[in-house]
Design goal:
- By secondary structure, the protein is an all-alpha fold.
- It is built from 6 helices and no strands.
- Helix 1 packs antiparallel against helix 6 and helix 5 packs across helix 6.
- The longest helix has 21 residues.
- It is elongated, with a radius of gyration of 21 Å.
């Protein structure tokens, strides 16, 4: 399969999410992620200005919403720091959501191989079998 189709799917997903995010509003838990990202962004600013102080204060800045993945919070914070706080290019919510748009696009890019089949280009491939799970073998006789 050509890489053009997965790349096009990724671009479409990213653009669709980017274009339609503002009218959607906020889901219930996004406020917690945004607050965690604000705290992590403050830590990143401290890290850039005084790395030793940032290391000493890591728990203070990273303890909010500790049950969620640190990488996601770091990406939200980095995106907001770059596109909103520094470049003044995106509104707050859009820059915090940008890493999620990227991961959705990455998923769209990486998944077309699941849709290959001998019978249908959109049928889900069954692992270990050459035929699609959505197109089972006909009954004998």
């Amino acid at each position: 399969m050509s890489r053009r189709l997965p790349f096009a799917a990724a671009v479409v997903v990213f653009v669709a999410l980017f274009a339609t995010a503002a009218p959607v509003g906020f889901v219930r838990d996004e406020g917690y992620y945004f607050e965690a990202a604000k705290s992590c962004e403050a830590w990143l600013v401290l890290l850039l200005h005084d790395p030793f102080a940032a290391i000493r204060a890591t728990e203070q800045y990273w303890s909010y919403n500790f049950e969620h993945p640190g990488l996601a919070k770091l990406l939200f914070a980095s995106s907001h720091l770059a596109f909103t706080s520094t470049l003044h290019f995106l509104p707050d919510a859009q820059s915090w959501r940008l890493p999620g748009f990227f991961f959705a696009a990455l998923l769209a890019f990486s998944r077309p191989s699941m849709f290959r089949s001998a019978r249908s280009p959109l049928a889900w491939e069954s692992p270990g079998r050459g035929r699609s799970a959505s197109c089972p073998d006909p009954p004998p006789g």
